[in-house]
Design brief:
It is a single chain. The protein is α/β, with parallel strands linked by helices. It has 19 helices and 14 strands. The chain has a five-stranded parallel β-sheet with strand order 7-6-5-11-12, with helices on both faces. Helix 2 crosses helix 3 and helix 10 crosses helix 11. It is globular. About 0% of the residues have low confidence. The chain binds one RNA strand through helix 2, strand 9, strand 10, helix 11 and strand 14.
Amino acid sequence: MLRTEIRKLLEKAAIEAGFKVVSPVKIERPEEESHGDYSTNFAMQAASNFKMAPKYIADNLKGHILNMSPGLFEKVEVVDPGFINFFVSKKYLQGRIPGIIEDKDKYGRVEMGGGSKANIELISANPTGQLHIGNGRNAFSGDVLANVLNKAGFKVTREYFINDAGNSKQINELGKTVLGKGESYLTDYLRSKIESLRPKLEKVKSESEAGVLVAASIQKDNQEFIEKKLGIKIDNWVSEEKAIYKKNKVEKMLKWLKEKQLVYQKEGAWWIKTSQFGDEKDWVVVRETGQPTYLLSDIAYHKDKMDRGFDKIIDIWGADHQGHVQKMKSVGRMLGYEGDLEILVLQLVTLKGGERLSKRKGEIVTLEKLVDEIGLDAARFFYLQKSLDTHMDIDVSLAKEQSTKNPVFYAQYAHARICSILEKAKADKKFSQDLLNHPSELKLMKELLKFPELVEDTAQDYQLQRLPAYTLELSAAFHQFYHDCRVISENKKLTKARLSLVLAAKIVLKNTLDLMGISAPDKM
RNA sequence: GCGCUCGUAGUUCAAUGGAUAGAACGGGAGCUUGCGGAGCUUCUAAUAGAGGUUCGAAUCCUCUCGAGCGCACCA
């Protein structure tokens, strides 16, 4: 990766020039083209440490860098107040094309994870109804994050936690409703579900039993929806009832906590000492009635994940579970987990007009309805565009309207165009690229080289919205190139070179869309 | 009351503390007798407010105003 190379060059130059590297060297991509392809503020940071003028330091470094990297840069310049700007040479850009074509779907892979194991809990949901548009945010971002981490060299397990414990409040409420003694979760969907399960329900002895029965059926629907319709492959469906309670994991967890004296009795209940591990207070894990709380089973579940040997555990929760974050972080420390426990809190998805989507209200917008309305590709793109910590306000009618002019089609159109050119040219496998030097060609080549950096950055900070943004930039660079440079022409050498570039562009665009789980059609 | 996440063009969203705040949609004006016009070019318009830190702030700190979500022996 060029960015890494430049960083190393700079560090070496700093050592040679006698400037000790204190803070990590930051190489950025300036927005403004005239500021180069890469730039660094290193000299400005070093200036305060060495009490020297930043420009003096920068000039000094520039000399060393140029000596160490003949041919890599078109030029390196020092600009006020002390930026060092790097302009990559054409030769270098051209030389990278064959590598992309050889790497194909592996292009963009970076070795950050080094094969370490990561677990992503995409969704933990009550099986009391269909998934709503809020769950969509968990599903899509979790799935895509998993793809990105995979690409960055982690071994990722996608997990879905089903809150189906028979002793839980929501399952009992569901049971009540099913038996006509309540109205929680009552929707048309549930009504028809009850209808279809009528014979079985007549034999049921308790509300809880009824709840469990219906929940299982609902869960089956949701599971099928996720796999078939959303195309998300969950590696591990974890039933709270079957995998945690039935296997006595809750019991064992409590026993362990008691032995370690991490819980104590007060007012008839058992409390866990989270306050000693960074939380504001302690919490009840076993009620006065002897019933364990959800917290205890969640702790047992997390212990289970830790025991399975994951180096990184990522939970993706809705903002309504935000209060749970401190608890679980404290628990992580309490259990002595040595990996990273990261909890991503997604802000809620609302409907235009601010109406909160609740399963308890009669009319909800299900994720299925939305996907049917705007299509899966558009839906995924739509969700991914937004940073996870901003509220998402979906205007359903607009989303639907946009489906015909959704930006995702812009990218897919570029891909289809590429395929059509390659098809027409019947490109042979040999490539040549040393004739590529039109500004639009250079721009496109630079875009292609950003991809591995994108993977690295995103695997680090989880800012998934970079992916759709990049897709658009890349597509725009291609469309521009297409507009300015005729690919298939009389000039055979040039044709060959441009076809190589087109092929490389196809690979990178396809790889990016793959990461987002969006299709890359050959024709539209 | 306390905590978390926010407040950016008309709208929906971007912007690892960087150099002229970017897209998309909307609205205005253009481009092609050629590889897909679902494209290209161009104009329009924004950092809620007030202080502070910094060579440099949409970004960090403080306060004000506004929005959403939490604050259970619910999950």
